[in-house]
Here is the input.
Amino acid sequence: MKAIKRINAWSSPRNVSTAFMYAFAQRQDTVVVDEPLYAHYLSKTDSEAAHPGRDQILASQSRDGQRVVREVLFGPYHRPVVLFKQMAHHLIHLDESFLSNMDNILLIRDPRAIIASYSQVISNPVMADVGIEKLYGLFHQLREQGRLAAVIDAKELLLNPASVLNQLCHCLGLPFDERMLHWLPGPRPEDGVWAPYWYATVHRSTGFQPYQPRHYELPENLKTLAEQCRPYYEELYEASLKA
Here is the structure.
């Protein structure tokens, strides 16, 4: 039996990660799984951020990250490709050796955009909440292991979804599928129980929304956080696929 291609898409929050997951869900050869380590993260984090739907999330998934790795990330699937939408900050208090047996994608976005959006739902985020420093660490770790397939920047993806996804599929050794560019509006069965709090915009969409430049006004404490994130983001952006 042919081995399943298992792909982690590691993202910062408030990125294009849900739309990215929906794109892969259109492929006939792919199963998608939404943030399987969220309950593990909530049960282990020291963050004071209040996550909406916390009790529902903890009830919907195993809190044992190692069990999730064994039974979900390396579980059986009925299609030859499985993509796991993952948040980089969920990767805490967990043996990360499994990463070397999977393909990994990093999804990045300008930190000012992330923080402006994230702080509307979770107040006063800190570096550990936004995941950029963790993505930076994963970038170097996975590149050394030869398990980093690609870095995808949200702006570049939205500027030309067909071009960036075509390049990504080549990096993954998969054929590009035009169906990845469009989906039906509304929730999907793969959505996590947290979808009502976070996915309203993508549920109204039928594809990747055209990139719209915006200016983000941040309070002083969040400006400081954005500047702390900036050097990590800039190095990651240099390595990203370009439209």
